[in-house]
From TrEMBL:
Residues 349-370 are annotated as: Disordered. It comes from Thermomonospora echinospora. One of its GO terms (molecular function) is transferase activity. This is CoA:oxalate CoA-transferase. Keywords: Transferase.
Length: 370
């Protein structure tokens, strides 16, 4: 099932105007979230187009429901067009390294003086301050430095956590600054460090380290918390996290009666041994049969699905998480929030390429709202 596109005239950010000077992943993801919530987003592209246009699926996923304008910000005309856009904007989101905006003539301090209503959101690898403020880094490098890759060897299929997390925090910062502006009338400069966002995202682990405590992950050493291979070659997930009654039920279903009485502390002490027992028991059973029995026994578990299988999941369909863009009817995943039971998402195709003319600016005014 694919949900119909819904009207955003009464969405939370309807009437808010956002200008985006961000490329690649974090900034476009943030402004996509704002667009999904009703904001009128215009992305500013360099001559030749946003680099992710080389990857149509990625570009389409991150830039739906936006307008675009191609500006040569090295030209006087291009900068003048941007100035006129900022005069009527509520939010400017930029993803340059610190110092670039100043060199282009768009220092946040000046913009705040000339456009006091403007909320400025700056996304960078390490933020606007600190010894590494001017250093750039891609997602995986930030994950490694922030401690997320400890004990991990295969990262080729990893989710771009730094990109996504900083995009979410940037959108949250923009919305928070708009709320604050309603109280005192002035915009705010929101500084989003991708590195900081990763530290905040793993607060439990970081807090333990700060206080001299040993971090062993969550839950600590639980044997039935991980991915296991079944007899049919399919993987399943067990997620028994410190719940003795679930452990007992799991052991009953897998005929591990000698282990059913182990409490949490004892399971943690014997984790390696018990994990081997679980692996052997599951390797003799089909995944569908195991999941059916464990779900009936209310043991936390689930299948390991690939992206195509996820889209056919009955829960995904029941929640109408897949919508179609207009006019192409391309299937995309909607923003996950429901407001009074409604998904206020109007999805329009990502803007077509805009060749820049000699004057330095070209705008794609395709209508955003349905």
């Amino acid at each position: 099932m694919t949900a119909d596109v819904t009207d955003t005239r009464h969405a939370p950010l309807t009437g808010r105007v956002v200008v985006s000077l961000a490329e690649q992943y974090p900034g476009p993801y943030a402004t996509m979230l704002l667009a999904d919530l009703g904001a009128d987003v215009t992305m500013v592209e360099r001559p030749g187009g946003e680099p992710t246009r080389r990857h149509p699926a990625l570009f389409g996923a991150l830039n739906r429901s936006k307008r675009s304008v191609t500006l040569d910000l090295k030209s006087e005309d291009g900068r003048a067009v941007l100035e006129s856009m900022l005069a009527g904007a509520d939010v400017l989101l930029e993803g340059f390294r610190p110092g670039v905006m100043e060199r282009m003539g768009f220092a946040p301090e000046r913009l705040r003086r000339e456009y006091p209503q403007l909320v400025i959101v700056s996304i960078s690898s390490y933020g606007q301050t600190g010894p590494d403020r001017e250093q750039g880094a891609h997602d995986l490098a930030l994950q490694g430095r922030a401690g997320l890759l400890t004990g991990t060897s295969d990262v080729l299929g990893a989710v771009p956590t730094a990109d996504l997390v900083s995009g979410v925090f940037a959108a949250l910062g923009a919305v928070s600054a708009l709320v604050a502006r309603g109280d005192h009338g002035d915009g705010t400069h929101v500084d989003v460090s991708m590195f900081d966002c990763l530290l905040a995202w793993q607060a439990v682990r970081v807090t333990a380290s700060l206080n001299g405590e040993v971090t062993t992950g969550y839950p600590p050493r639980e044997p039935a918390y991980g991915v296991f291979r079944c007899a049919d070659g399919r993987d399943i997930v067990l997620a028994v996290a410190g719940e003795d009654h679930q452990w007992s039920a799991l052991c009953d279903e897998l005929d591990l009666f000698e282990a059913r009485g182990y409490r949490t502390a004892e399971r943690e002490q014997r984790s390696d041994e018990l994990r081997v027992l679980l692996g052997e028991a599951l390797a003799r059973r089909r995944s569908d049969q195991v999941l059916s029995r464990l779900e009936a026994a209310r043991v936390s578990c689930g299948p390991v699905k690939d992206p195509a299988e996820v889209m056919d999941d009955e829960q995904v369909q029941a929640r109408n998480m897949v919508v179609r863009t207009v006019p192409s009817q391309r299937r995309v995943v909607r923003q996950p929030l429901l407001f009074d039971g409604e998904a206020l998402t109007s999805c329009v195709d990502a803007p077509a390429p805009n060749p820049v003319p000699p004057g330095g600016a070209r705008r794609n005014d395709s209508t955003r709202h349905v």
